[in-house]
């Protein structure tokens, strides 16, 4: 479940949406954050509705693995992306992309 926290700052009010994805191998909680800043003068009721909608979308994206972790290496990200989009390509194109990915990863390094 998403947690929404109101943040009062010098530039106005913003909201932080936090979604927990469970625990990692070392037992630490894995959390993902998203910040929403409403336009000045927006009614509180509309802000509340928009926050709930964003929180639900963000939580679904986390569950489906569609969000990008800032600590992920390119090789892992590219492999995931290619696997998720396999059906978009013809089999020969997919095989070619997969073979090129090895060369790209070697060229980029860590």
Characterise this structure:
The protein is α+β, with helices and mostly antiparallel strands and 110 residues long. 45% of the residues lie in helices and 25% in strands. The protein is built from 3 helices and 3 strands; from the N terminus they run βββααα. The protein has helices at 44-64, 74-84, 91-108; strands spanning 3-9, 12-23, 29-36. The protein has a 3-stranded antiparallel sheet with strand order 1-2-3, covered by helices on one side. A hairpin with a 2-residue loop joins strand 1 and strand 2. Helix 2 packs antiparallel against helix 3 (91-108). The chain starts with a strand and ends with a helix. The mean pLDDT is 87.
List the keywords:
three-stranded antiparallel β-sheet, single chain, alpha+beta, 110 residues, 45% helix
Average pLDDT across residues?
87
Q: What is the tally of beta strands?
A: 3
Strand content is: 15-25%
Q: How much helical structure, as a percent, in the residues?
A: 40-55%
| Low-confidence spans | none
Describe, in short, the structure shown.
With 110 residues, this protein is of the alpha+beta class.
Q: What's the topology here?
A:
Layout lengths: L2 E7 L2 E12 L5 E8 L7 H21 L9 H11 L6 H18 L2
Antiparallel strand pairs: 1-2, 2-3
């Amino acid at each position: 479940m998403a947690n929404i926290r109101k943040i009062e700052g010098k530039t106005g009010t913003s909201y932080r949406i936090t979604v927990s994805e469970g625990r990692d191998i070392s037992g630490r909680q894995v959390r993902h954050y998203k910040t929403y800043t409403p336009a000045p003068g927006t009614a509180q009721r509309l802000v509340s509705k928009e926050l709930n909608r964003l929180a639900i979308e963000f939580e679904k994206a986390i569950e489906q693995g569609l969000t990008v972790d800032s600590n992920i290496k390119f090789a892992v990200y590219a492999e995931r992306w290619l696997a998720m989009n396999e059906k978009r390509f013809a089999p020969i194109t997919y095989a070619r992309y997969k073979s090129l990915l090895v060369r790209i990863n070697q060229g980029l390094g860590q």
